[in-house]
Specification:
The protein has 25 helices and 30 strands. The strands form eight sheets. Strands 6-17-18-19-4-5-30 form a seven-stranded mixed β-sheet. The chain has a six-stranded mixed barrel with strand order 24-28-25-27-26-29. Strand 26 and strand 27 form a beta hairpin. By secondary structure, it is an alpha/beta fold. About 30% of the residues lie in helices and about 15% in strands. The longest helix has 19 residues. It is globular. Helix 3 crosses helix 18. The protein folds into three domains: about 290 residues, Rossmann fold (3-Layer(aba) Sandwich), CATH 3.40.50; about 250 residues, Dimethylsulfoxide Reductase, domain 2; about 150 residues, Barwin-like endoglucanases, CATH 2.40.40.20. The model has no long low-confidence stretch (mean pLDDT about 95). The chain starts with a strand and ends with a strand. The structure holds ligand MGD (2 copies) and molybdenum atom (MO). Its cofactor is Mo-bis(molybdopterin guanine dinucleotide). GO terms for molecular function: oxidoreductase activity. This is Biotin/methionine sulfoxide reductase. Belongs to the prokaryotic molybdopterin-containing oxidoreductase family.
Length: about 775
C-alpha cells in the first residue's frame, strides 16, 4: 500500500488529502497555513455517509403525474430511484415542455448559493451556461450576504457594488497608520476561516495581531463580545441589535454640536451635508438625534457615545461595518450612515483610516485589494432579461404578476414553472422556511443537483446526484488570494454521482446543443484550457509554470493585482475635481437626489433612523422578549458539511447549540447542556443551550446551517428537531430599495424542552423505492 498525498482546495482553505489505494484516509492541514480551519479534516466521514445521494431519484407523485399545485407533496413524498438515461430524458423533456408552453422566463435558474471552490466546476456557472444556451432563464440579483450594501453603496460612493473592497484600507496600512478602529458588528475570526473560492493560507488572524501589537485600539460594537478576538483587548459596547444607525447618529450629532466634524472634507468632497445636519438637529421632526436619544435606543450609554465622538475625531480612526448589520430591517441605513460618520470624523481618505466594510467576514477582505484575472467557465449572455431580487423567491412563487419596487424600478414578479437549483441550499438560506415550503409547492417541477439528501433535495421532484469537489479535477482561485491551487480528483464519485458538467452535457446532448455547451472539450481539457488562458493573459512563462508543473506542485503564486483601483478616497480628498467618484455628483452622497426621487417611505434621501419591525423595543417583545442573532456558524460554511465531523462534534444531543446570557436562562429554568425550544409565531426549533456572558442579555445566538428537520414536513409551523434558525426568521425585505433579506431582525422566546427527545432525522435519506 502506498499512500499518496494530494492537494485539496475548499472555501475554508487548502489541505492535503492522504489517499491509500483509492481510499480517502484523511485530510490534513498544509504545513504553510498558519491558521488552518478545523472544518477540512471533518469532510472525510461525510464523503460516504448515509445522507449521500447515490442514484438519480424522482419524487413518486411527480413520476405518477399527480396534480400538485398548492398541496404538500414536496417534502413528504417517497422517491423512486431511476437510471441516468431515464433521469436525463425526464429533465430534458420537462425543460422542453415548460419552455414551449410557458416561455423561457418560466425557468428559474437564479440558483443562489456558494457551491464549492473550483474555477471550472463552478455550479452556477455551469447551470447558467447550460440554461442560457437553451433559451435563457429568470435570474436572481444580488446576494443573501450583502444585498442592502450592494444596492446602497453605488448611490453613496459610486462604482461597482463590490469596488469598496479595493478602496478601503488593507490590514497592513491600518497597523501602520491607524490609532482607533470602531467595528460595528465586530471582527469575528470564526468568519475569516472562509474565503470565497478558496485560499492558500489564512492571514487575517495574524494581521489583526499585528495591528494590536502596533498599538491600534479596537472598539467592538456588537451584541456579542466574542465578535472580537481576546488578543485585541477590544472595548466592548453591547448594542441592542439593529440599532447601529441610531448609535452612529448619536455620535454624529455630538460631533456636529461640538463643531468637531471635518467641515472642509464635507464641503469639498461630499454633497448634502446641510440637509442631513438639519435632520440630525431635529429641525423637521423636533427630535435632535443627540447622545441621550441614541442611548435610549441602543442601550449604549450617553457617555460612551460622546466619548466615541471625541476619540473618532481626535485620533486617526477607521470605522468598520460588517455584513450582519445590513442583513436586517432597513439594512441600507447602517451602511450609508457609517460612510457619513467616517466623512464627518476627518479620517476619510487618510492612509489606513476612514471607512471599510466586511473586514474579517472573509479571510482575504483587507488582505489584498484584488487578484488578477483567472479563467473560469465562460459565461453565455442570458437571452431572458427577467430577474428577481435574490431574497424575493417565495414572493415570486406565491404572487406571480405582482409588481414590487427595486432600486428605483418597478419589477413584475415572473411566473416560475420550473425551478432548477444547482450549488445552493434555499432550505438553509431563505428566511421563514415554512413560508418557503408553502411557496415551493406551486411550480410544476423542481430539479436539484445535490451530493447529499439535505432538505432542498428532499423538497425536490428530481434529484440528480453530483460528485463533490473531492471527486473531480479542477483548480481553485479565491477572492483576493494571490494563489491558484490544484484540485485533482482524490476519490471516485460516490455511487452513480456525476459532475454537474457531465450532467449538463448529457442534457444538452438530448436538447441538441452539446457541442456549444462542451466546446468539444473533456473535463480535464477544460481545466488545462482555463489554466492556459490564465497563463497567457498573465504573461506566459514569466508569470506561471506550465500546467504539468503546476499540477505536480499543487500551488502557484499569481502576480500581485496592480490596479488602478478607481474611486479612491485619498484621491478624492486630494482633488475632488480631478478624481470624482462615480456618483451622480462625483462626491460622496450624504444626500442622494436619486434615492430621494424614488419617494420610498422606508429609505429616504439621507440616512435615517427607522424603527425595525422586530427589535427589543417593539410591542411584539412583550410576547417574544429575545432578539435572535442567526449568524454564521463557526463549525462549517452555512449548511455545508453540517454532516461533517467538525459540525457534528459541536452539537448538543444532536442539536445545534444556542447561546444565551445566564440572566435570561435563569428565570426560564434553563441550564447549560439542556435541550430548549426556541419559538415565535412563525415556527419553532429545538437547540442545545449554552450559557455565556459573551452574549448580552436579551439576545440569543443560534447559527445558521443546521439542516432543517421538520417533524411533520407538510404541516405549517411544525417543530424543527435540529435547530435551523430560519424557521424563526421573517421573510421581509430590508426596504423597497434593495429588497434584501432581513434575517437578523427576529424576536423569539426560549423555553425548556422537557418532553421526550425526538430523533434527529436530518441526515437520513427519504424513503427510496427502486
Ligand atoms: N438566518 C440567516 N440566514 C442566512 C444568513 C444569516 O446570516 N442568517 N446568511 C445568508 C448568507 S450570508 C448566505 S451567503 C447564504 C448561504 O446560502 P447557500 O450558499 O445556499 O448555503 P450553502 O450551505 O453553502 O449551500 C451550498 C449547497 O451547494 C451544495 N454544493 C456544494 N458544491 C456543489 C457542487 O459542486 N455542485 C452542486 N450541484 N452542489 C454543490 C452543498 O451541498 C450545499 O447544499 O445563507 C443566508 N442565510
Ligand atoms: N465559519 C464561517 N465563516 C463564514 C461563513 C460561514 O458560514 N461560516 N459565511 C461567510 C459568508 S457567506 C458571509 S456573507 C460572511 C458574513 O459575515 P457577517 O454577516 O459579518 O457575519 P455574521 O456571523 O452573520 O455576523 C457577525 C456578527 O455580527 C453581529 N451582529 C448581528 N446583528 C448585529 C447588529 O444589529 N448590530 C451589530 N453591531 N452587530 C450585529 C453578531 O453578533 C454576529 O456574531 O461570513 C462568511 N464567513
Ligand atoms: Mo454570505
Amino acid at each position: 500500500m502506498v499512500e499518496r498525498r494530494m492537494s485539496v482546495a475548499t472555501h475554508w482553505g487548502s489541505y492535503i488529502a492522504v489517499v491509500d489505494s483509492g481510499q480517502l484516509v484523511r485530510i490534513e492541514p498544509r504545513y504553510d497555513d498558519p491558521v488552518p480551519s478545523p472544518i477540512g479534516p471533518g469532510m472525510v466521514t461525510a464523503a460516504d455517509d448515509s445522507a449521500r445521494v447515490l442514484r438519480p431519484a424522482v419524487r413518486k407523485g411527480w413520476l405518477n403525474g399527480e396534480p400538485r399545485a398548492h398541496d404538500t407533496a414536496r417534502g413528504t413524498d417517497a422517491f423512486v430511484e431511476v437510471s441516468w438515461d431515464d433521469a436525463i430524458t425526464l429533465v430534458s423533456d420537462e425543460l422542453r415542455r415548460v419552455r414551449a408552453q410557458h416561455g423561457d422566463s418560466a425557468v428559474f435558474g437564479g440558483s443562489y448559493g456558494w457551491a464549492s471552490a473550483g474555477r471550472f466546476h463552478h455550479a452556477q456557472g455551469q447551470l447558467h451556461r447550460f440554461l442560457a444556451l437553451g433559451g435563457g432563464y429568470t435570474d436572481s440579483r444580488n446576494t443573501y450576504s450583502t444585498a442592502a450594501l450592494e444596492v446602497i453603496l453605488p448611490h453613496v460612493i459610486g462604482g461597482h457594488p463590490w469596488s469598496y473592497q479595493s478602496r478601503m484600507p488593507m490590514w497592513g496600512e491600518i497597523a501602520e497608520n491607524c490609532e482607533l478602529v470602531v467595528a460595528f458588528g465586530g471582527l469575528a475570526l470564526k468568519n475569516s476561516q472562509i474565503n470565497p473560492g478558496g485560499l492558500a493560507r489564512h492571514q487575517t488572524q495574524n494581521l489583526q495581531r499585528q495591528c494590536r501589537e502596533a498599538g491600534v485600539r479596537f472598539v467592538n460594537i456588537s451584541p456579542i463580545r466574542s465578535d472580537t478576538a481576546g488578543f485585541l483587548d477590544a472595548e466592548w459596547l453591547p448594542v441592542i441589535p439593529n440599532t447601529d444607525t441610531a448609535a452612529m447618529l448619536g455620535i454624529a450629532h455630538t460631533m456636529l454640536v461640538n463643531g468637531w466634524h471635518d467641515e472642509d472634507f464635507l464641503r469639498r468632497c461630499c454633497v448634502g451635508f446641510d440637509r442631513f445636519a438639519s435632520y440630525l438637529a431635529g429641525e423637521l421632526d423636533g427630535i435632535p438625534k443627540d447622545a441621550a436619544w441614541a442611548a435610549k435606543i441602543t442601550g449604549i450609554s450617553r457617555d460612551a457615545i460622546t466619548d466615541l465622538a471625541g476619540r473618532l475625531t481626535t485620533q486617526r480612526s477607521l470605522i468598520m461595518v460588517n455584513y450582519a448589520v445590513q442583513r436586517a430591517d432597513h439594512g441600507e441605513q447602517p451602511i450609508w450612515m457609517s460612510v457619513v460618520l467616517a466623512a464627518m470624523a476627518g479620517s476619510m481618505g487618510r492612509p489606513g483610516c476612514g471607512w471599510g466594510a466586511g473586514y474579517a467576514t472573509m479571510d482575504a477582505t483587507g488582505v489584498a485589494p484584488d487578484r488578477p484575472f483567472v479563467g473560469t467557465i465562460p459565461e453565455v449572455s442570458n437571452p431572458v432579461p427577467d430577474f428577481i431580487p435574490v431574497a424575493r423567491i417565495a414572493d415570486a412563487l406565491l404572487h406571480p404578476g405582482k409588481t414590487i419596487d427595486y432600486d428605483g424600478r418597478r419589477l413584475t414578479l415572473p411566473e416560475l414553472r420550473l425551478i432548477y437549483w444547482c450549488g445552493g441550499n434555499p432550505f438553509h438560506h431563505h428566511q421563514d422556511l415554512h413560508r418557503l415550503a408553502r411557496a415551493w409547492q406551486t411550480p410544476d417541477t423542481v430539479v436539484v443537483h445535490e451530493a447529499w439528501w439535505n432538505t432542498t433535495a428532499k423538497f425536490a421532484d428530481i434529484v440528480l446526484p453530483v460528485a463533490t469537489s473531492l471527486e473531480r479535477d479542477d483548480f481553485a482561485a479565491g477572492f483576493s488570494d494571490p494563489h491558484i491551487v490544484a484540485m485533482p480528483k482524490v476519490r471516485e464519485p460516490a455511487g452513480e454521482s456525476r459532475t454537474d458538467h457531465n450532467i449538463f452535457a448529457a442534457l444538452a446532448s438530448q436538447l441538441g446543443y452539446e457541442r456549444e455547451f462542451t466546446e468539444s472539450r473533456s473535463e480535464i481539457e477544460w481545466v488545462r484550457h482555463l489554466y492556459e488562458q490564465t497563463r497567457t493573459k498573465l504573461g506566459g512563462d514569466a508569470a506561471l509554470p506550465s500546467f504539468d508543473d503546476f499540477w505536480r506542485s499543487a500551488t502557484a503564486e499569481l502576480p500581485a493585482a496592480t490596479g488602478p483601483f478607481p474611486g479612491s478616497f485619498e484621491d478624492l480628498r486630494s482633488d475632488p475635481q480631478r478624481f470624482p467618484l462615480l456618483t451622480p455628483s462625483g462626491r460622496i452622497e450624504i444626500f442622494s437626489e436619486e434615492i430621494d426621487s424614488f419617494a420610498y417611505d422606508d429609505c429616504a434621501g439621507h440616512p435615517k433612523w427607522f424603527e425595525p419591525v422586530e427589535w427589543l423595543r417593539a410591542d411584539l417583545s412583550d410576547r417574544f422578549p429575545l432578539h435572535l442573532i442567526s449568524n454564521q456558524p463557526a463549525s462549517r460554511l452555512h449548511s455545508q458539511y453540517d454532516n461533517g465531523g467538525r459540525s457534528l462534534s459541536s452539537k448538543i444531543d444532536g442539536r445545534e447549540p444556542v447561546t444565551m446570557n445566564p440572566m435570561d436562562a435563569a428565570p426560564r429554568g434553563i441550564e447549560s447542556g439542556m435541550i430548549v425550544r426556541v419559538y415565535n409565531d412563525r415556527g419553532s426549533c429545538l437547540a442545545g443551550a449554552v450559557l455565556s456572558d459573551d452574549v448580552m442579555p436579551g439576545v440569543v445566538q443560534l447559527s445558521t446551517g443546521a439542516w432543517w428537520d421538520p417533524v411533520q414536513p407538510g404541516m405549517d409551523g411544525t417543530l424543527d428537531r435540529h435547530g435551523n434558525p430560519n424557521v424563526l426568521t421573517a421573510d421581509r425585505p430590508c426596504s423597497r430599495l434593495s429588497q434584501g433579506p432581513s434575517a437578523l431582525s427576529a424576536l423569539v422566546d426560549v423555553e425548556r424542552y422537557d418532553s421526550p427527545l425526538p430523533d434527529v432525522l436530518a441526515f437520513s435519506p427519504p424513503s427510496l423505492e427502486h
